[in-house]
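Sanity check

After download, print the first record. It should look like this:
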Amino acid sequence: MFAKLLLAGTAAILAVSSASAADLPRRVAPPPVFTAVPVFTWTGFYIGTHSSYAFSDRQNIRTTGNNDASGGLTNTRLNVAQERRPSNFRSEQDGIGNIGGGIGYNYQFTPGSGFVVGAAAEVTWTDISKSYAYFGPVIPGVNTAPDPSNLRQRLDYLGTVTGRLGYAFDRVLVYGTGGFAYGNVNYSAGFFNPAGTLAYAGKYNDMETGYVYGGGIEWAIPTDNFLNRFNFVGGLIGASALTLKVEYLHYDLGSRNVLVNATGFAPVTGSYTSRFSTEGNIVKAGFNYKFGSL
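Expected structure tokens:
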């Protein structure tokens, strides 16, 4: 009898427990946590370095004589008219520049893809120079040998302060740029007599200013790209991204008159004026360290 009562009580307890368990909410796995993928933005400061190739094909050196034969002066105007001195000499320069660098700031209106505005200041050590030799014609009754002339032109560096407007396609930025340009130029002219004596000389060495315009393309390297293995410097200085860029610029630093005066080493008088111009193109290739959130 006791055993029957024990079995009945156990069955009742099990029935109650089953009913209570059915009323409890079911245990299910928690939903996965959604983590938003960071959207790249070009907003932020950057510093960088680059190399360059500069070339010019529109520069000219024009020389004029300042006096005629009156007053006992050498007829330098006639000398130019007879091309004993070069009236118009085409000055072409080209060469691979030394290292350059710059800083700037970009602001992107909409992260991901959208318009980007910015400003930058850069300096490129171009160090391109060219020396030209010219030999005037032999004119019967005037000279028995050519009159040599030497013209030299150099651009030591090119600096720019520019604004930019572009459009970003995620990590690719295409932009146009333009603004203020400056650089140190060196102009010199030396005119010799047929005996090789320096008869006239003049030079100018100083900074000139002008303008620059152009455009470029820049690519921000993804964090999982193998090129980021070489970005150890960026990690040390706290950069958020490494970008590669190629940029083309046309610069114009204007013209300058150089007085080419008699040296006193030869029996000549009077003077010439040689007008130099500095205008050309530069292609830059380099990289930037970008600072700012992704």
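If your output differs, re-run the checksum step. Summary of this record's structure: The two ends are 79 Å apart (CA to CA).
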